[in-house]
Amino acid sequence: MMVEPLIRVALWLLRQVARLPDRWVRRLGHGLGDVLWWLALPRRRVALVNLALCFPHMPQAERRRLARRHFRCFGAGFLECFVFWHEPAERIVGLVRQQGREHFDALAGRPLIVLAPHFVGLDAGGVRMLVDSPGAAMFANQKSRALTEVMTRGRTRFLSRGMILRNEGMRTVVRTVRSGVPFMFSPDMDLGPRDALFLPFFGVTCATVPALARLAQLSGARVLPMITRMAEHGYETTFLPPWEDFPGHDLEAATRRMNAFIEQCVLAMPEQYLWTHRRFKTRPPGEPSVYGR
Asked: Where on the phi/psi map is residue 71: left (φ > 0), alpha (ψ -120 to 50), or beta?
């Protein structure tokens, strides 16, 4: 009964932190990551298991250092979300530098899916995109109602057509994309065995939803990758050229292509990928859990 009021107080305090100068928010975020490294033991274990699976030839000590750097990036990214969810547009524009925006603008008004994998700068790039252009995205309710409300308001405050709840299904998304509203999509998560294909990610079989390929096929949309990197100061968002010949007629091949692309992005900034997500939770029939109980 008392959890939600405490969460609301914590969210209010984080809102006050977001008003501090950028360099202070970043330093506090790194400190938060250090604290989480020691306190969030289940998430630390998930990150270490993921890294061991994806980088089996990397020395264990190096993987542990990489995981700790990830926690620092995650802590900074989490605190800075409150900047992007609350602070004025001018501050956000100054924090996020955009490259390749012409690829995005060239498709204005046409069905477009913006592929944005789960890096710590996901909110930074997404909110910055919405400062200049309307858009939509998909979300899932959090365990905390207060956090869900804050996240939804923050992500939709700049000219957005709104957030689509994941359980609304594909029809709502298809209608949105066909209407010419850019749809920001992050499908690189384990959502369970339903409709999933068991495909390799860093050589490890994982449940991968072919939703990106299926949505592009149903809507006739182009797929344009958007990668946001946490820089020493602020963030850098890069819009890459839209993919050609995607999805084609083979949904599995198209989904393999998506996984291979995300792998390349991870290798460029491995400490910034969301390693605390149980990406390999759903195993093929007969295979034991990689995370244990």
From this structure: alpha
Q: Which residues contact 99 (CB under 8 A, 6 or more apart)?
A: 236, 237, 238, 239
Answer positive or negative: Cα dihedral of 259, 219, 184, 284. negative
**What tens digit of pLDDT does each residue of 213-229 get?**
999 999 999 999 999 99
User: Hey, is 202 helix, strand or coil?
Assistant: coil
Query: 192: Cβ–Cβ under 8 A, 6 or more apart, which residues?
Result: 207, 282
Q: Residue 38 has which token pair?
A: 């020691």
pTM: 0.94
Residue 150: closest CA among 5, 2, 12: 12
Which stretches does DSSP call E strand in the chain? 96-99, 112-115, 136-139, 162-165, 183-185, 197-201, 204-208, 222-230, 235-239
Give the pLDDT score at 163: 72
| Residue 1 in tokens | 């009964």
> Which DSSP state fits 273?
B
**Taking residues 248-274, what's their average pLDDT?**
97
Pairing status of strand 183-185 against strand 162-165: unpaired
User: What is the DSSP-derived secondary structure letter of residue 119?
Assistant: B
Residue labelled with tokens 């209010």: 12
